[in-house]
Design goal:
single chain, mainly alpha, transmembrane, two-stranded antiparallel sheet
Length: 413
Amino acid sequence: MGLFHRLWTKSTQCKALEQSSGKLETLFFESVYRVTYFSGWAYLDNSVIYRIYSGILKLSVGFLICCEVWQLISASSSLDSIIENVNVTLMHLIALYRYINMKENKTIYRKLASAMESPYFDTSTPRRKKLVRFWSQRNERFLKLLLGLGSCTLGAWHIYPLVDDIDYNLMISARFPFKYQTPIRFPIFYVIVLIVFNYTSLFVMVNDLIMQAHLMHLLCQYTVLGDCFENIIEDCLREKNKNDERHVIKTEEFKEKFLTRLNDLVEQHKFILNNTTELKKTLSAPMLGQLTASTMLICCVSYQATKAAGPNNVKFFMSLLYLMYNLFELSIFCKWCDEIKLQSENIGNSVYCSGWERGLTATPGVGARLLLVATRARRPLVLTAGGLFDLSLASYTSLVKTSYSAVTVLQRF
């Protein structure tokens, strides 16, 4: 494992890591940057070798998606064949759309990734360092879960063509502009399609990993800010005699220090809110497409799984894993977006617990600032899909119920 880790670290050293704004960005995004680099979709690396490598992969992925769409338009006749093709093609198309949107807004995403290097972001206490470690470790854990579940799904997808009764069958439904159904050509073509399909699937997972990392990165900033508000007096008293707290709080020196500290936290709150608003705008249209696509995919894959149960256990297992990946992918998006709403709202509670009742609101400017922050926190930022649906666990539950209802309708045909 040590040799593999060293090889992986050396072979995936990319410009994104070299141009990282600091250790906190690296902490949250290192694994995402490395996987993106390996998949060929890193846009900061411009070396000749990488551009050739990336160009070949992008052309291959694009060609495969075109062949899938061609098959869907021209050769799909029955409901089963249409559903089988849609299951893959739709996932690839929505991932391509999300990537294009992300590339068009790369300046915003670069700003979001470096947000923890803000001069107002304070991780000076052991508790805040622990909060940062908690969210970074959670991000890494869910990254591995997504990659693991996706890899298991791919494994089942590779096995299915080898055990079915169809000659010259591939793991995907696609129409190619040349004949490969010969004993000599098929093994070679099968390996090529397998490699390209793996990279196409990795491209889908990379989009999910990038989005998850940004959401959890933002969540960490909200929780640290909440802790800063709750412990603002303790931070200002750090070098003072806490046994004589009442006397120290009344001094002009402390009031000035408190007001300066409060101004920094207000600026950090505004900074996070602006970043959340920008993320909301860039996510809105892609997530509407993702939500629509996921509804269709959950419905189609569930139908395929119910049809395959019993007659074809391998296909059933393949469909089940694919369904699990789609459900898990959508659930974590909705979960983290829901959590952002709760954490942004929780800033108001943190302000209330900041110790304002100890007489500090009598200081000019303190009461107004605390009230403005608390009032703004009462209107939490809600990430939406096209402004039509909130990205929340409640929306996720409704989507799954709708998909289940659609499956029962499909089963009648």
